[in-house]
Amino acid sequence: MGRRGRALATVALAATVVLGVAGAPGAVAVAQAPAGQQAKAALPAPTGPYAVGTTSVHLVDRGREDPWQAGRPRELMISLWYPTGRSALGGERAPYMTPEAAAHFGSADSVGQGDYGFEPGRTDWAGVRTHARADAPALPGGARPVVLYSAGLGDPRTWGTALVEDLASRGYVVVTVDHTWEASEVSFPNGELATSVFPELAKQPGLDMGALLRKMIGTRVDDTRFVLDELARLKHSRTLPPGVGAALDLDRIGMVGHSGGGSTALQAMREDPRIDAAVNMDGQLHFPGPDGRTGVYLTDVAEKGLDRPFLLLGTRDDGSGPHQQQPGWDALWRHSTGWHADFTLDGSRHGSYTDAESLLPQLAGQGAISSHALRADVGDIRPDRAVLATRTYVAGFLDRWLRGHDDHLLDGPSASFPEMVYEP
User: Fold this and answer.
1) What Å distances lie between residue 167 and 38, 145, 356, 392, CA to CA?
2) Residue 192 exposure: Cα atoms within 13 Å on the Cβ side
3) Most buried one in 137, 140, 243, 314, CB count within 10 A?
């Protein structure tokens, strides 16, 4: 979800058409793009001790009809990110997006462009590189905790790569999931580019926005459970790069999501006991009424609560903030018996927990996004501080509940992170 709002309802409406400053310490300095040249951007390097490998997998759920495309089985693309033995150099670094996905993401037809407000065609998205080596063998060392990552409504699975790579560099196997026909675009191995159906759906007269968003969450939860089933199969398959299957510890599973992905993470944990802990980064837990504007209807997980650990990370965007200010988060807080904590990132906006925080300030410095759009997307927190805080708090939570390593960062306010406001 993007610049037109953090709420699930607002994002569905946004589909019809979301700060640090460039040059802050830790940001990547990029000069103004010459006339006629596309802007370029780079992701922040991961901070863990391990080099990172990645591989992509095409999954087909032949037992489930696609809810957005009648008559077709549900197809997904996932990527696995994991420790490997040697860092990627130069051309070995895997691309951020396929050329086809990059071309669409940067166009005026993209949900991503509509959400985040960068200038169509002005950015070389195909030139952005990850820090991972494609199809590299996994680093020996036994099975590692698995973390699922679900992006926001309309965002591709790549839009959280800075966080995902960092977790992999710390020793996790991270699985990113594209929710097909909802994400801005999904590129399949046969050359098909599945673009989001939400812009057309949002144009329908009398659309029940709450019903659409409930369908979205339900579809994503089904996707998540199917991916978990497939990981159990892939663990013993020879189709993955050497050692990757064996690295999957399916007895220690966490889930992290942003926006609609954060809502999905909590709902999926409610419905699937295989998920041990979850992080919701600015994902709303209530729906609007049929008119898309009025009424408050809680999600199932908000009404029933959770008996396992979860972490809430809010922003200073309208409708966000601490659990006391959000009806869905407040209900979840009151109904849950599992460990839980809530922090708000000062100076942030809805996009601050995504790659928007590191990439968009670089584009602003090259004239590919306006200062107004940039501030609406990521606020005025320094990019390096937002990235560091997100990585540290998410990793601290996962280390505590999947590895048993508690640094007590989540117990209250921290002098090291004054921008992370503890919400008791």
Assistant:
1) 30, 10, 18, 10
2) 11
3) 314
Q: Are 156 and 359 in contact (CB under 8 A)?
A: no
Tokens of 231: 């990981």
Question: What pLDDT does 29 receive?
Answer: 37
- Asked if residue 2 lies in contact with residue 13, where contact means CB atoms within 8 angstroms, the answer is no
- For 188, the token pair is 């399949």
CA angle at residue 258 from 256 to 264, to 5 degrees?
65
Q: At what angle do helices 371-378 and 356-364 cross, to 10 degrees?
A: 170
Query: Helix H segments across 3-122?
Result: 8-14, 99-105, 111-116
Q: How far apart are CA 124 and CA 178, in angstroms?
A: 21
E strand intervals along 141-298: 144-150, 173-178, 185-187, 193-195, 248-258, 277-281, 286-287, 297-298
Give the amino acid at 267: Q
H-run or E-run covering 342: strand 340-345
Q: Are 43 and 132 in contact (CB under 8 A)?
A: no
Q: Could you tell me the two tokens for 31?
A: 């000069």
**Separation in Å, CA 192 to CA 49, 148, 189, 195, 420:** 37, 25, 7, 9, 42
| Pairing verdict, β 340-345 and 420-422 | antiparallel
CA distance 299 to 65: 24
pLDDT tens digits, one per residue of 288-339: 888 767 788 999 999 999 999 999 999 999 999 999 999 999 999 999 999 9
pTM to 2 decimal places: 0.92
Distance CA 52, CA 8 (A): 33
Contacts of 372 by beta carbon, 8 Å cutoff, 6+ apart: none
Closest CA to 326 of 291, 289, 283: 283
